[in-house]
Amino acid sequence: MDISSAAPHRLDPAGGCPHADNARLLALGAVAPVLLPGDIEGTAVLGHEALREFLAHPGVAKHARHFTALREGRIAQGWPLMTFAAVQGMTTADGDDHRRLRSLVSRAFTARRVAQLRPRVEELTDSLLDDLAHAAVSDGGVADLRRHFALPLPMGVISELLGVADHYRDRLHRLSGQVVATDIGPEQAIAANSGLVAALGDIAAAKATQPGDDLISALIAARDEDGDRLSQQELIGTLVLMIIAGHETTMNLITNAVRALCGHRDQLDLVRKGQAGWDDVVEETLRWDAPVSYFPFRYPVRDLTVDGTVIPQGTPVLAGYSAAGRDPAVYGADADRFDVTRPGRSDTPRHLSLGHGAHYCLGAPLARLEAGIALERLFTRFPDLELAVPEDELIRQPSFVGNSVRTLPVRPRP
């Protein structure tokens, strides 16, 4: 099928729950034409097997020089998705450049290094649970779990890894939230991107004069030792990636898991009875309600046929993680059911929500560690935790990239 002949699905810049649209699009095929903000034509790969093939395809690139509309000057200044296309770092590099940049960061996320972080994650989790309880006491028994727990845990961990001082964290979270928003205006988008780059530039400059035992200092040392290993733009681009990916996705994962368990108490009971583990909760949440819905961008370097559909060269392609996680072709007729005992398949990953291929999420072990500890200790401390408002009244994130809610009011009953 030639994708240009199908009517494109206009992605809602205001975000919203993606699952109904995903199911409708999946019923039509594994690949769908979409309209991005500014009426830029793109494609979403939605089917699990099609996405798995696409993510690892040698004819697919990440660098923006392959983005036809951008190269031809058809992308306006302040386009809300510009950072995803133009930032210089691992997520927009190919081949040797990607391997070079990834190697500079990968040592911070080895299995051994992540395991060493467990005591600190546990300590921070317990402290934040105290904060959550105090917030609820001061506000009639209700507290925003996202604000008091799901956000500061991954932000605290990634900030300590990077060496970011406490007083920068709120600013970095606010700016990164604006960068991933898709309903933002051009002036706001430009201001958010420049503000994030400026803040990270200030942090890097301070580390250059007073280095520490942290990842930013190590990256600066690599830059100063050999400019061919890491340029200043790549340094800042890498930090942009790590701040956004290092806390936004894990924040969404924890938030979505809590929502899922509060709405499916039978599944929570299975974990308490030992019939499933907290790691099963994390993996099923990643599948059932992926923290990233449509991730930008990849570009075919030539016309590419995926699942019988031709995607033209230079098309910006979104990875439809939230759709792939509920693909009935892989997960069966009950793909939209939250089931922590759902068996995996030996011939396919349990889900693709952390990516696949060369760009598989480098921080996946850390995200899994943080979420598992957070959920176990949260529901141990507050076994009767419940949502303070109905699920359908929660306000969604203003983004079709991130997939979660803005706030999560809960009653943390001990």
From TrEMBL:
<dbReference type="InterPro" id="IPR002397">
    <property type="entry name" value="Cyt_P450_B"/>
</dbReference>
<dbReference type="InterPro" id="IPR036396">
    <property type="entry name" value="Cyt_P450_sf"/>
</dbReference>
<protein>
    <submittedName>
        <fullName>Cytochrome P450</fullName>
    </submittedName>
</protein>
<comment type="similarity">
    <text>Belongs to the cytochrome P450 family.</text>
</comment>
<dbReference type="Pfam" id="PF00067">
    <property type="entry name" value="p450"/>
</dbReference>
<dbReference type="InterPro" id="IPR001128">
    <property type="entry name" value="Cyt_P450"/>
</dbReference>
